[in-house]
Structure formats: structure tokens, C-alpha cells
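Q: Could you fold this chain for me?
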Amino acid sequence: MIKISADIPNILSGVLEEAFCELVRSPWGIERGDKNSPTVLFGFFDSEEEARSEWEKLGESVSDLPKNFRMERLEDADWQNAYKEFLKPWNWRDLHWVPVWMKGEYRVPKGDKVLYFDAGLAFGTGDHPTTRLCAQAMREYADEPGKDLSERSVIDVGCGSGILALTAKLFGFGEVYGFDRDEEAVRVSVENAGLNSIGGVVFEHAGIERALGNGKSADLLLANIQSDVLCIYSENLARAVKKGGRLVLSGILASEAEDVKSRFLEGCGRPLIFEELKTMGDWARVVFSAE
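A: Sure. Below is the predicted structure, expressed as C-alpha cells.
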């Protein structure tokens, strides 16, 4: 296994993450630095030739990518440890997302909810702001008074490693369905369900048109995918929200959020009520309710 890496300016992180979102399965990751350490772009590949080639391809879409990089060969054990270094626990209120190898050392307060995960090669480590924005929106929806969550359904569009769909079950939602166009994502999602002994979540290898066909709908639909795809499939996504339900869109650069908002208000084929636009760093979520 070959690891390729380079220090990058923080301002480049958002541009790179947008480029990663266009890949079905991204070999790239970013370790965000603090005042004492740099932000690092890294990737794992099978050979030096592949690593150099993929760096050049990335440079074609991100013109400011550094020309100089580091390359090192990792043994299997070293690669596994390097991969684990970049996945950290995250919590918000009473929700905790914890890498499974930290299960014995991470303390979960009594009564809190925890999801253990291993992202494998799937997109969806829980580290990205858009995933966290979706989780927060789901929690806020769940906290609204007068809801029997066991009778409310959730669809997770582009489920990645299944983090959002499985979190929905932790919150107590009834029917939960997640799908992704990447077979590896579905495999990892099913594995993560097993790691947490969570049943009742259906994961499927499918694209948006097939997954949301035949009138499938939910009370809460989470779509954490890039802006252009959200806009292309705005009618499919809006149609899949039950009357009175909630549509949460993320995977959106903050600079593109107003365009996404306009597309769904004006061109999705059904009336929606704009609820909020919230940002986290360079990223955003846009939330609507369906009439």
C-alpha cells in the first residue's frame, strides 16, 4: 500500500472536498490541522504509479494542488493504523459517533446514544461537516413535540457508510431506508448495522431514480450529495417527501446554497416551504417542509 500526502493551505480544503464528492469511491482524505500543525491531504493506493497518476488527475481539477508531495510504502498493519489515525469520535448533545476500534476506551455518558462505525472504503466517516449538519437536522426534527418517531419514516439518499440511517434507528424512527450507487457503501452500511446490533434498516444498491421510483416516500428525507446532483434530481427528491414531512439537503458548498434553495423552491415540481439555511465552515444544509 502506498500513501501519498502533502501539506495544503486550509482554504484549499473545501475545493478538494468538492472534487472528492464527484468520485463514487474516494481514495482521498484531509486531516485538518490546528495552529500548531498543517492541514494534510492524503491518499492510499496500490502502487506508486497509481498514486502519481491519481495526484496528476486531482491536479487537473484543482489547479492550486501542490506540485511536491510525500510518498511512503506501508505494510498492511501500518496502513490500517494510518487509516485509523484520521478517524476521530464526534459528539453533539447526546449523540456520539465512535470508530469501532475505540469502543473500549471512549466513554459514553449514561443515557446517551452511540453509534460505532468503520467506514472502510466507503464515503462517510462522520468527519465531514455535511454529515454532521444532517445529523443535527435529524435530531432537531426528532425533538419536535407531538411526534411518535416509531411511526415516522426516513430515507437516507447516498447512505455512504450508513451513519445517518443507523442514527435514525438510534433516535427511534420506524421505517428507515438507505441507498447508494456504490456497492461497497451498501456492504459497509450492512456491516455497521451488525457492529451495533441494529436491525430494521434496509440498505440497497441503487441510484436515485430507481430507489425513489414507484412512489416511495418518507417523513424525513436526508440527501447528503453534491449540489449539482441535488438540482438534477430535485423533482425526484421533493416527490419522495410525504405531505407535512421534512427535506434536508446537504453536501452543499456554502457559496452554492442559495442556488440550491432557489432550484427547490422554483423548479422541483411541488410546493415546498423554506425552513432554514445553516452553514458549518465552507459547507451548508438547506431544509424545507413539504406541503
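A (continued): The chain has ten helices and 14 strands.
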